[in-house]
Amino acid sequence: MLGHTTRSLFHVREYAMSSIINAVHTAVSGLNSQAHAFSDLSNNIANSQTTGYKASTTSFEDYVTNNELANDGESLSDSVAATTQQHTDNQGMVTTSTNSTALAISGNGFFNVVQATGQSNDSTPVLGTQQYYTRNGDFSQDKNGYLVNTSGYYLEGYNVDASSGTLGTSLDPIQVPSTVAFRPTESTKLTATGTLDSSTANNTTLSSPMSATAYDSTGKSSTVDLTWTKVNDTTWTVSNASDTTNSATVTFDSTGAVSSVTSQNSTGTSSTSSTSFDYTGAPQDMTVSLSGVTLGSSNSLSMTSDSVTSGTFSGISMETDGSVMATFDNGYSQLVAKIPLTTFADPNGLSAQNGQAYTATAQSGSPQVNTVNTNGAGTLTTGSVEESTTDLTGDLSKLIVAQQAYGANTKVVSTADQLLQTTLAMIQ
């Protein structure tokens, strides 16, 4: 009888110890999970003032295992695990910045950025090939003219080719050096001045054309030549030397001043003006003012363009359409780069990197590069930054809950220790 009782006590002790040890394992998993949550919360709180930071949350899940305490066909939930959930798609508040080159995104897009991997001998950065994405738009120019955010990432966009004035099609780091040259502005008007010799024989074409340098929208220059032919004492014709179908009949009054101009182009369309010739051709259609031309005693003509041809770089400015503009001391601004925004099918699937940056993953989907304000990429606000999405008040409340849960799990461990000691002393 005593032997049977002892065996029963041993069985009870074995079952009790197994249950208690299982409870310890469960409590330890609870401690680990609450520590994980504590880490997530502390990271959110620490980055509550970090530009472009996206706060994360902690998700808990229980683990169900089969063990010797379960009846046949049953299972027991005996542990918990915590995972960090990213919320990179959450919109932060856009606030005004004292930095005029800062940009804030309202929408789903990310800036395209790269990191420096070193420096060359002349101290210019050596930029890596790894593509990163960020919402930290607090950009400023470094000593080499590159746009760099406060985390050290270099902004990429489509640069304007300095020689052709055309916008590129590949993403490259945006650099606007202080030596950037001013591109002559597009010519819209030519102004002719001087005299026509009234003693010139009728039906005579002047041997030297009236010339001027004109510029297209990219700053490329072309020479415009106009030829003059005397019709009679009060009438001359002026023609485009490259296209004689584009001409005008110019009538002078008794004082020798221009009284009327009738223009005609290659399509046969004509128009009449008091003093202007409608020029059509390269580099673009323009108005030629003839009010400064008079009849005189010699052929002495000149012509100038209204293009502004010189200017000294004074800084850069950002536009809400993603345009990066170089500003000059002559009051003009010119496009030097265009900033696109990149979107993902699942932005929460991006892989977080240092400095509020991310890399694409299979879960996030492939990057889709968009112009600003298209395909949900979002809009830009200049002179502004996107604040952290940390809910400081809410996270502090969650911190208290995590502390209490952690303490409760430690209480389970200490209680289990007491129970183990009691169980071990059952039969001694």
Report a brief summary of the structure.
With 428 residues, the protein is of the alpha+beta class. It has helices at residues 2-46, 392-424, and strands at residues 57-65, 76-85, 94-96, 103-106, 111-114, 116-119, 125-127, 132-134, 139-141, 147-149, 154-159, 172-173, 189-197, 210-215, 221-232, 235-240, 243-252, 258-264, 270-273, 276-279, 286-296, 300-305, 313-318, 323-328, 333-338, 341-343, 351-353, 357-359, 368-370, 379-382, 384-386. It has 2 helices and 31 strands.
- Mean pLDDT reading: 88
Silhouette: rod-shaped
Given helix and strand content, the structural type is alpha+beta
DSSP helix fraction:
10-25%
Could you tell me the strand content as a percent range? 35-45%
End-to-end separation in angstroms reads 18 Å
Poorly predicted ranges: none
Oligomer: single chain
Number of H- or I-type helical stretches? 2
Number of strands: 31
Using only C-alpha atoms, the radius of gyration works out to: 39 Å
Biggest β-sheet description: 9 strands, antiparallel
Core attributes:
alpha+beta; 9-stranded antiparallel β-sheet; 18% helix; rod-shaped
SSE blueprint:
Elements: H1 2-46, E1 57-65, E2 76-85, E3 94-96, E4 103-106, E5 111-114, E6 116-119, E7 125-127, E8 132-134, E9 139-141, E10 147-149, E11 154-159, E12 172-173, E13 189-197, E14 210-215, E15 221-232, E16 235-240, E17 243-252, E18 258-264, E19 270-273, E20 276-279, E21 286-296, E22 300-305, E23 313-318, E24 323-328, E25 333-338, E26 341-343, E27 351-353, E28 357-359, E29 368-370, E30 379-382, E31 384-386, H2 392-424
Parallel strand pairs: 13-21
Antiparallel strand pairs: 1-2, 3-31, 4-30, 5-8, 5-11, 6-7, 8-28, 9-10, 11-12, 11-25, 13-22, 14-15, 15-16, 16-17, 17-18, 18-19, 20-21, 23-24, 24-25, 26-29, 27-28
Helix pairs in contact: 1-2
